[in-house]
Structure formats: C-alpha cells, structure tokens
Amino acid sequence: MQGLLQGAMNFGCAIMSLPNGRIVEVYGGKRMLGVMLACASVMSLLSPVAARMSIWVLIGLRVLQGVCLVGVLPALNTVIVAWFPPEERAKFFAIILTGLNVGTVTSMVLAGWLCELEWLGGWPAPFYVVGAAGLLWSVLWHALIYQTPEKGKFPWAKFLRSPLVWVQTATCMGDVFSLYIILTMVPTYLTNIQHFDLRNAGIVAALPYLLSCPVSVCWGLLVGYLTVSRVLTKRRIKQLSTVVGFYVPTLCMVGICLAGCSKDVVVVLLILSVCANSCNFAGIFTTYQDLSPTFCATFMGFTGMFSSITGMVGPVVTGLMINDSQTLGAWRNVFITSAVIYFASCTLYLAVTPMRQQQWDSPTPPTPCPRPCMFPSPDPAPVRKSQEC
C-alpha cells in the first residue's frame, strides 16, 4: 500500500502529461502554470483531511496532484522560449530548474522539523505550510508575470514519425527511472543497509539535492559563458552536459556497489551522482526548445507521459528486486540496473544529439528582446513587387 501511495502521483502524471502540454500551448504557459500550482496547493491543504477519511481518498488526491503538477515544466518551457533568445536558454533553464532541488531540500528538512512540533497537529503541518506557500506563490505569479499565450495546430502525424522525438523520449525515460530510484528508495537503503537512524537518513538523502543547487547554477553560468564566447558549439555543450549528467551517475552507482558498508563513501557517491545529474538541465532538457520552440510544451508533455510511467515502474522494480530481503546483494542489483539504464540512455542520446529545429515545428514564434526594448526599430519599408517574372 505504501508503494501504491508513493506512485499515485506518477500515475496522474502519466495520464495527463501529454494533454497538459497541449493545453499549455493553447491557453498560455504563464496562465496555466499559475493555475496548476494553485490547484496542487489546494490538494496539499486537503491531504490531511483525505488521510483521515481513507487511504484510497488520499491516493486519489495524490493522483489529482500529479495531474496538475505534470504541466508545470511544459508551461515553463513556453515561458522560457518566449522571453529568452536561443543562445541564453540553456543558461537560464539550468538556473531556473535549480528551484526543483531547492524545493526538494526545503521540503525534506522542513517536513521533519514540523512533524516533531505540536503546531497544527504535528504531521499535517507540512501539508498546510507547503499548500499555503504554493497559493501565495500562485498569486504573486499571476500578479507579476506577463502573459504571452501561444496558439497553433499541432502536427501530430509528423511529430510521431520523427525519430528524434523517440530518442528524446527514451533518454528521458532512462533518466527518470534511475533518478526516481534514488529519490524514493535511497532513504530506505540508508536506513536498512547503512544503518542510519530515520532522522539522519532523511537529512543525508536531502543533502545531495541541497549541494546540487549551486552546482546547477554554476554549470548554467559556465555553459552560458562557453556559448557566448564561442569556446564550444551548442552541440558540444549539450553533449558535455549530458555526459556529465549521465555517465558520472553511472560510475557512482557502480561505486556504491563496490563501497559495501562504507557509509562515508556511499554518501559522497550519492552526492556526486545527484550533483552531476543536475547538469542535465543544460543538456537533454534544452532539447525541447531546440527541436520545437513552437510546440515545446506538447513535446515535453509527450515525453513526460512516458517518463512518469518509468517513475512508477522504478520503485516497483526496486521492490521486486529486494523482495523484502534488505541485503547488500539485493541492493547491488538495484544500483547496477540504474547504472546500466543511465549508460544506455546517454549512449543513445550522444549517438544522435538532437539539435536542429524540425520541419514540422512551424511557424516559429519571433524571439523577443531579452530585456524591454526602449527604442524599437521602425517597420521596414514595403518592397515593391516586380512586374517581370
């Protein structure tokens, strides 16, 4: 039942990832991002009530949260395409997505602290605090961010026949599969195998995400500099980010298998794995904008649909491998599986490295100024058509 509850949100993500991507493009990234976060925040506030009613009510609420939250990244994609020029998107996308890790660390640490207090009943307090913060953020988002909705007819037939779409989808599925194993199952591994107490296990599990925040920002600034100064091409930067984001975690997973019960080595490798994986923000996550700046939200929703399925499968496969036998050998199988999937996904991506805007992505919205234009250029004079052929 615990595994079902943990995977419930991914089920909601899987069924609505693609529709949400298209909805975002039709109604606008700014508008839908705020609405989705507000709805998910309300469901967070209702979670303690649902838990007291029935476990199935809580599972249903988690599914609905997944339905809302899966559209956030596609919506963010459209906002970035609208406001940043192509040469700056990788830098700012990496910096902005650092907020994912900041939120993960903050919620992990805050939840443990709030649960120990009697304020708001103890364990319900994290749901109330996070929900209230999300509602406040949604209000500020709607009040301060300028809306630029994008509309257009989506070329489904050409999209589904594009090999690069499926390469990107397979790569993201591999990344999410291994990443969710680390995110959801590592606290159990630290508690049962490395013998951390429950509180310290939560802190150690959150530590990699905390340290990955400055890594992600610095990496974004670095690739931005390399792009502007033309030290490396955009293709090389994307390949470098993907190599660091996939192959380094692959080596870390193998290292954890070899480390055995050496706590310090295992913790260092977990930190290195998550920090390196954050470099993907400037790698595979920018592919949507390169291949399809017009329909990047639908594209990301499409890959997110399949990735959410692997996010559900990852913890289930881990449970089958362990099979209630919390042994070092069983967990080695889990980490080796993650390493193989990381390696295969990265190798597939590097063999192709999708870069060019696809022919089916048309028309392309104009790239706005990265900052307000005080003196816009006048409209060009009309060109007279020649009478001759």
TrEMBL record:
Q: Where in the cell is it found?
A: Membrane
Q: Which UniProt keywords apply?
A: Membrane, Symport, Transmembrane, Transmembrane helix, Transport
InterPro entries named among the record's database cross-references: MFS, MFS_dom, MFS_Na/Anion_cotransporter, MFS_trans_sf
Q: Determine the domain of life of the protein's source.
A: Eukaryota
SUPFAM superfamilies, alphabetized: MFS general substrate transporter (SSF103473)
Chief subcellular location equals membrane
Instruction: Give the Gene Ontology MF terms in alphabetical order.
Output: symporter activity
Biological processes, Gene Ontology terms: monoatomic anion transport
Q: Does the keyword Transmembrane helix apply?
A: yes
Transmembrane helix among keywords: yes
Q: A GO CC term?
A: membrane
Major facilitator superfamily (MFS) profile domain sequence ranges: 1-357
Q: Which residues cross the membrane?
A: 32-51, 63-85, 92-113, 125-144, 164-186, 206-228, 240-259, 265-285, 297-322, 334-352
Membrane topology (UniProt): Multi-pass membrane protein
Q: What is this protein called?
A: Major facilitator superfamily (MFS) profile domain-containing protein
Q: Which organism is it from?
A: Scylla paramamosain (Mud crab)
